[in-house]
Design a protein that fits this description.
378 residues; alpha/beta; Rossmann fold; SH3 type barrels; Elongation Factor Tu (Ef-tu), domain 3; six-stranded antiparallel β-barrel; 29% strand; globular
């Protein structure tokens, strides 16, 4: 076989979306030998109106043909159910709100996928995520790799990638890290890719656009219970704590109570503020800036650090949810987790979500939020 041994083989995850499609083309332009891999991660309702796997596969194959790369499909549904979905259900059953995209990246896209790619003789893997990897060339950390935010801040996905380790990142390329989304769309149009105008996927990979409560109903046991105000007044009945998340405004089910006047005589919307698992009680508050929705501190467990060890710097910045600007914080690491305190109280800090730490553009890692402390009312 007269294969050019200097040409690195990159196996890229191709989802049928525009980001991974343009990534495959960019890699080929850069001189890599590119192989596409389409991951099938969900099988339970393959024929459902909400499942787009079949169309995504057709799109991925069509793009591979235009770009000129080979593509194959691989089924990780069993691994996904085991490593991601089971944990997702456990968290919801416990009244927390997990982020399966974080777990999916760590366990499937950069573990099962990486292992499979290595069996195909890959030197590196690639995905269409908006993030960057940088090798440290000098100083005490020389030789380490860092996870950085994408140049396009509005699309940066480092939050979802914070659990990746040195081995995973050292074998990963993010072709879109230096590119803006508008440029990606432009390239797709210029190449006349069949999915150039395809809408970005939203929602959780295995749920798609389906009604979330209906989906959870199929897998979780639930128990209705009282819905109360902070004063202990029962204002309704919840359908099961698993179906609500802190900060939720729509779909609470208060009906006419939505325009109930607060103590100042103003009409303000209701928000989910707390879940009491022991008494199966859902607490709701009125007004976006109610003290029960603001936290000055949080605790997190299940730590994962990109460098392999926790940061020594106390004063960093953090995100407690994906669509959030970084906020200044002070962090203290202990044996089984870390705590963060904020100068500015944070809104709807939610157990089960990830608290991710940054030092400038560098994503340091993070953990799963276990609890938060309500800020003192001003």
């Amino acid at each position: 076989m007269n294969k050019d041994t200097t040409k690195k083989r990159v196996v890229i995850g191709m989802s049928g979306g525009v980001d991974s499609s343009v990534s495959a083309w960019l890699l080929k332009e850069q001189g890599y030998e590119v192989i596409g891999l389409f991951m099938k991660n969900w099988e339970d309702d393959d024929d459902s109106e909400y499942c787009s796997t079949r169309q995504d596969w057709i799109d991925a194959v069509s793009v591979a043909d235009v770009v000129g790369v080979d593509i194959e499909a691989v089924n990780f549904a069993a691994e996904y159910k085991d490593r991601v979905f089971a944990e997702f259900l456990r968290e919801y059953q416990a009244g927390r709100t997990p982020n399966p995209d974080v777990l999916c990246n760590a366990e499937i896209k950069f573990k099962a996928f990486l292992d499979h790619a290595m069996l195909l003789g890959a030197d590196m893997i690639a995905t269409g995520h908006y993030a960057r990897v940088r090798q440290v060339t000098s100083g005490a950390n020389a030789g380490q790799v860092e996870l950085l935010k994408a140049v396009d801040a509005s699309k940066d996905q480092s939050y979802f990638l914070h659990r990746l380790n040195q081995v995973q990142l050292s074998k990963t390329l993010f072709p879109l890290g230096e590119i803006r989304k508008t440029e990606v769309r432009k390239i797709a149009e210029q190449l006349k890719l069949p999915n150039a105008a395809k809408k970005d996927s939203t929602g959780i990979c295995f749920i798609g656009e389906r009604p979330f409560r209906d989906f959870l109903n199929r897998y979780l046991s639930y128990q209705p219970g009282p819905m109360k105000t902070p004063e202990g007044v029962i204002v309704g009945e919840h359908v099961g704590l698993s179906f609500y998340t802190l900060g939720q405004r729509k779909g609470i089910g208060l009906g006419g109570m939505k325009t109930h006047k607060n103590t100042d005589g103003n009409s303000e919307p209701w928000y989910v503020a707390r879940k009491d698992i022991a008494s199966n009680t859902l607490y709701i508050v009125q007004g976006h800036d109610h003290p029960w929705l603001l936290s000055s501190e949080l605790s997190a467990g299940q730590m994962s650090w990109v460098a392999g060890s926790p940061p020594t710097e106390e004063h960093l910045s953090a995100k407690t949810r994906y669509r959030q600007a970084d906020v200044a914080c002070t962090q203290h690491t202990h044996a089984d987790g870390f705590s963060l305190s904020f100068d500015t109280p944070q809104w709807a800090v939610t157990p089960g979500q990830s608290a991710v730490l940054y030092q400038g553009d560098v994503c340091l890692g993070g953990g799963i939020i276990t609890a938060s402390s309500i800020a003192s009312a001003s």
